[in-house]
C-alpha cells in the first residue's frame, strides 16, 4: 500500500534513481537532500524483483512511494496536506487566499476526473556503480535503505532511452576494465553516471563521476558512450575522491563533445553545463515559472531581482515575457555559485537580453544586506531559495527595500510557510498560493506564492 504520510515539508521528491536534485545518493534515511546517513555499502547486486503494480521494482526501490495510487488520489492527498500546512498563513488578515486552488498536476488538476498516470517525465537520470561478486561493473538503483544495487532495464518515470544509456555505460566500462567504486573499501574508480536529456532539443549531457582524475581508457569510454545515443552531445568527468554520500565532487572537465547542451523553457534557450542546476521535470517547470511570472506583473522600466538565480532561468524567462509584451525591464540576478553566474551571463547573451541584465556572484543574504544599506531600487523580487528557505536577515532586508511585489518559488513548503509569515508580518499581503506537482508518484510538492506590498 502507498504511504499515507502527508507531504508537509515537500521532502519526498523520491524517484527511482534514489538521488535528489542536489546530488546526494539516496537510500540512507533522514532528510534526503541535506542529511547524510548510514554508509552500508554492499558488493552484491540483485536482478529486478517482481512485484504487483505498474513497476516491477516498486517495492524494492521505493523511489516512487505513491506509484500504486491512482494519480487523482495522489493529487487529492497533496491538496489536503498543503491546505493543512498553510492554514495558519491563510487565516491571516493579510491573506486574500482562504482555500488553496486545486494543485496543478501533469495532465489535470485536483478534483478533475480520471487523469492518466504520468510517465517518462524525468529528464535527469543517474546511476551508482558497484562491483559485482567477480569484479564486474554493476549499475541500477540503490535498494531502499542500502547501497545494494538493483539492476534495472528501464524506469517508467525517466525519459525514454535514459536507462539504456546508463546500462550501456556500465557495459562499456566493464569491457575497458574500468573498475566500479566500492563503498566499503573505497577502492575502484567509476562511482556514478548522471545523464540529462533535453526536453525540446535532441541534446544531452553525460557526466561520469570518478574517484580520481587520471583514469585509463576514460576517453575511449566517453567516445563510445556518445555512440550509444545521438542525443549525447557532451561527456564530462567529475572528480569526487571524498568519502561521502554526495554524488558530485568539486572539479568537472569536458572530455568529449561540446562543452554543454541546450534546452528550451518558455521560448528561451538555455545552455546547460554538465553540473549546472536545471529542473528535472521541464514540462511542470514551465508551468511553475509561468505562475511566478504572471504574479510578477512586470511593467515598463521595472527592476527585477532574481535571488538564488542559478543559471538565470526564472529571471530571463520573465524578462523575455516582458519584452514580448513590449515592456523593457532591468534584471538583477544574484547567485553564490560562480559557475551558475557564468551560465547566466551566457544565457542572457543567447536570448538577446545581455544589455539589460546584471548577474552577481554573491551570497543572496550578503547582497540583500548591502542593497538595503545602499537603498538600492528593486521593484519586483523573485525568490527561489534552497530547501532551508531564506534567512531572516534576507527577508528583513527585502522588507526594508519594499519591492511592490514578491514571488516565492519553493521546493519545501514547510520553510516557505515560515518565510511567508515573516514577510506578511513585515507588511506584505498574500495574493496567491499555487501548488505544482513537480514529481508525481512521490509526496513532493512545489509551491508558488505571490505577495504584494500593502499601500
Key words describing this protein structure:
23S rRNA (Uracil-5-)-methyltransferase RumA; alpha/beta; 10 helices; 7-stranded mixed β-sheet; single chain; 455 residues; OB fold (Dihydrolipoamide Acetyltransferase, E2P); 6-stranded mixed β-sheet; U5_MeTrfase_fam; 26% helix; Rossmann fold; rRNA (uridine-C5-)-methyltransferase activity; S-adenosyl-L-methionine; 23% strand; transferase; 2 domains
Topology:
Elements: E1 45-46, H1 58-61, H2 71-90, E2 104-105, E3 108-109, E4 124-131, E5 137-139, E6 141-142, E7 149-150, H3 162-175, E8 190-197, E9 204-210, H4 218-226, E10 232-239, E11 251-257, E12 261-265, E13 268-272, H5 282-296, E14 303-307, H6 313-324, E15 330-335, H7 338-350, E16 357-361, H8 364-373, E17 380-383, H9 392-401, E18 405-410, H10 413-425, E19 428-436, E20 446-453
Helix pairs in contact: 2-10, 5-6, 8-9
